[in-house]
Structures are given as C-alpha cells and as structure tokens.
C-alpha cells in the first residue's frame, strides 16, 4: 500500500511524467466521449423533429374510410335477416318458415340471399312489415 502511495505522490507534490501523461490521455478521452455524446444528442433531437414533422403531415392527410370486407357473403343468416328487417329472431324464423321471406337451405343452414331480400323489400313498396 505504501508502494502505491509513493508512486502516486502525496498531495501537493508534482506527479511524475508518466502519471501526467496518463491523466492528460484520460482527460482527452473524456472530452472526446463528451463531444460524441453531444453529437448523439443533436442527432436524436434532429430525428425527433423529423418524426414529429412526419406525424404532423400524416395528421393532415384525409382519413381513409374503413376498409371493405374482403368477401362479403351473398347470403344472410336468419338472425341477420331479423336485424335487417328490424324484427325479432323468432319473427324472422316464422317469416322464413311460412315463405314470406324467400330462403334456401345450404346443408343444415337456412339462408336468405341478399339480392332476394333486397328485391323482396322493394316489392313491399314502402308498406312495411306490419
């Protein structure tokens, strides 16, 4: 321990040439690191400004409409028919069973063609369902 203390010198005594060179080298390395850190901060600030500008430009664009569904089925379930007609599900089932609303059987499913339902609604001529 005394060896290390003697090598470093005591406070108030001049440092050796090797120690002065080491301290100067460390000072330069720290100044270079500080300069690099400032450059990185400047680049970060510039990137942040560019991102903000891009976001502002995007906000000024007209908002896209909701994307249409890719494959809209040409058929409606009886529950969907009830929704379209504004009636209960049980009423829609009665209308399908008695043939008031034209329907088709696809396997075990009962469906109504969209086009057929639209034609059927048009044939009512605004008279409504009740």
Give the arrangement of secondary structure elements.
Layout: H1 2-8, H2 17-60, E1 75-77, H3 78-85, H4 89-97, E2 104-106, E3 109-113, H5 114-124
Antiparallel strand pairs: 1-3, 2-3
Describe the structure.
The protein is mostly helical. It has two domains: 15-60; 75-124. It contains five helices and three strands; from the N terminus they run ααβααββα. The protein has a three-stranded antiparallel beta sheet with strand order 1-3-2. Helix 3 packs across helix 4 (89-97).
Low-pLDDT segments, ≥5 res: none
Q: Name the structural class.
A: mainly alpha
Give the tally of β-strands: 3
Roughly how much helix do the residues carry, as a percent range? 55-70%
Query: Strand-residue fraction?
Result: 5-15%
Mean pLDDT: 81
Backbone CA Rg:
41 Å
Order of helices and strands: HHEHHEEH
Question: What attributes characterize this protein structure?
Answer:
3 strands, 3-stranded antiparallel beta sheet, 2 domains, 130 residues, mainly alpha
Tell me briefly what this model is.
This protein has helices at residues 2-8, 17-60, 78-85, 89-97, 114-124; strands at residues 75-77, 104-106, 109-113. The protein is mostly helical and 130 residues long.
């Amino acid at each position: 321990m005394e060896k290390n203390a003697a090598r470093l010198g005591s406070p108030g005594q001049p440092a050796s040439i090797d120690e002065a060179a080491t301290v100067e080298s460390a000072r330069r390395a720290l100044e270079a690191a500080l300069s690099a850190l400032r450059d990185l901060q400047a680049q970060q600030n510039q990137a942040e400004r560019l991102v903000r500008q891009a976001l502002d430009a995007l906000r000024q664009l007209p908002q896209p409409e909701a994307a249409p569904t890719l494959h809209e089925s040409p058929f409606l379930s009886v529950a969907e028919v009830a929704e379209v007609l504004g009636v209960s599900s049980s009423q829609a089932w009665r209308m399908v069973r008695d043939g008031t609303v034209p329907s088709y059987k696809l396997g075990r499913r009962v469906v109504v063609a969209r086009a057929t339902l639209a034609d059927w609604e048009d044939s009512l001529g605004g008279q409504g369902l009740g």
